[in-house]
Amino acid sequence: MNYSKSGWKLQNSYAGLPKTLYAPMEANPVASPKLVIANKELAKTLGLDPGQLDSPETLQVFAGNRFPEGSFPLAQAYAGHQFGQFTMLGDGRAILIGEQQTPDGRILDIQLKGAGITPFSRSGDGRAALGPMLREYIVSESMHALGIPTSRSLAVALTGEKIQRYAAEPGAILTRVASSHIRVGTFQFAAKYRSTEDLKALADFTINRHFPDIDGPDRYIELFRQTARRQASLIAKWQLVGFVHGVMNTDNMAISGETIDYGPCAFLDRYEESAVFSSIDAGGRYAYRNQPLIGGWNLARFAESLFPLLDDRPEKEALASLQEILQEYVKLQKQLYMTGMREKLGLFTEMPDDGQLIDELLELMHEHQADYTNTFRSLTFEDIEEPQLSNSGSFDSWLSRWKTRLQQEGRTAEEILDLMKSRNPAVIPRNHRIEAALEAALQGDYEVMEKLLAILQDPYAHSKEQQPYTAAPPPSTPPYQTYCGT
Ligand code: AMP
Ligand code: MG
Q: What value does the mean pLDDT take over residues 360-364?
């Protein structure tokens, strides 16, 4: 079959790495695949013909039944710290079919999640259920629209097979697209179980793929620095929109700086620093407020795995360089977060008391259980819809201090409004909306989801049709929980 007509232009440079870093895969065919959703806009940027997305040939690709020319399907080996415990992992239910060469010159991984058993499946079935794959589709596409680096979702196809979870569920495969799926855990795997040559090959590959400007004797230190910077920026962005990843294990942190592995993630509704959505995170390790800290912890594990590559210099010196970068990460993360928060409040410049102004707002939001997104949206339009806040005297006093601070900017009301509109989304993928969309989808009605996806596509539009989607869940809604590995 000639897939180049549909626009597939695959290579697989990962297969050129030492064979100890992956397992080659064969197709794991499913009997009666059916397309559920496909992303035309993303297809275009990949150089795929959007008109071919629902063709029988393309469905065979999305189902993992056939691979386009140039494909070299493989499962990547990796390890990782899961909730602090080091474990051998690897792609247990995903295969990398190849790297698409896009018309604008990018190289993007095309991965099928839920495509069957691999040598790394352990006791798992290698499959995924429809609900969680659609959930990843919705949240990842929404993250992209919010301007946050992320893996993307190209398609979800039903496999036609049932899989056993808490109950029998329809099996599905998500085709996801990412700059790469190289994780902190990929380095941990190579450092612990493979030779220094293999580790070096992985590091050189990563530099070439993600940081082609890095060169010279300090290249691995520089790899660490650039990775740390990207994580600082990524996690600041998460914090600013109230995103909780949920499982920031080292195997779920991509070196590219993209958000990957959407499992038990969720957005804050009411502002709660200790929010955790994962059913298995009883200790709150991956709570909203801990994400910057955990990012640093994961980066420290990355630094350790790079250490064998730094043996050309005195150990003390190498350690000092890595530690300095970690400190830089902490500072940069905070700085980017603070700048972002100021902008959410319409502030273009920095003043000494801004930190206090921000902290006090967050404390008030917490005290009054105010909705995170809607509070900032209300401030943007000076229309306080948060009833708890609007009835509070201390909030009035905060408002007047904020307004005085805004005056010091010397900007027009229009400039401030434009800044705030572009930093405070009207809509986020709220849990109750996702649940409603998934519930309908599981009944075979995909319209609710399609409408939700359309609404989330331009979160800073603040349009009239977004209005109904801005509502927080009713107060009676029980705390939201999501589950991993489903
Ligand atoms: P995650 O929690 O999705 O980051 O996955 C952690 C590890 O479990 C990874 O190695 C996954 O490949 C593996 N895994 C998750 N679900 C399955 C499954 N259904 N079958 C096999 N492996 C799985
Ligand atoms: Mg994972």
A: 97
- 254 and 137 within one domain: no
Look at residue 413 in the predicted model and tell me its pLDDT: 96
Whether 383 is in a domain gets the answer no
Q: Is the pTM of this model over 0.90?
A: yes
What's the confidence (pLDDT) of residue 485? 47
- Average pLDDT across the chain, whole number: 95
DSSP string, 134-200: HHHHHHHHHHHHTT--B-EEEEEEEEEEEEESSSEEEEEEEEEEES---BHHHHHHHHHHS-HHHHH
Distance of CA 409 from the midpoint of ligand 2 (Å): 44
Cα–Cα nearest to 57, from 135, 125, 2, 112:
2
Range of 248's domain?
A: 184-342
Q: Is residue 420 part of a domain?
A: no
Of residues 91, 109, 198, 251, which has the active-site annotation? 251
Nearest CA to ligand 1 atom 13: 92
Ligand minimally distant from the alpha carbon of residue 173: 1
- Give yes or no for a contact between 53 and 163, defined as CB atoms under 8 angstroms apart: no
Q: Are residues 164 and 196 in the same domain?
A: no
Distance 128 CA to ligand 2 centre (A): 13
Active-site residue, 251 included: yes
Residue where a domain terminates, one of 153, 178, 203: 178
Q: φ, ψ for residue 169 (rounded to 5)? A: -130, 155
Q: Which of 342, 374, 406 is the last residue of a domain?
A: 342
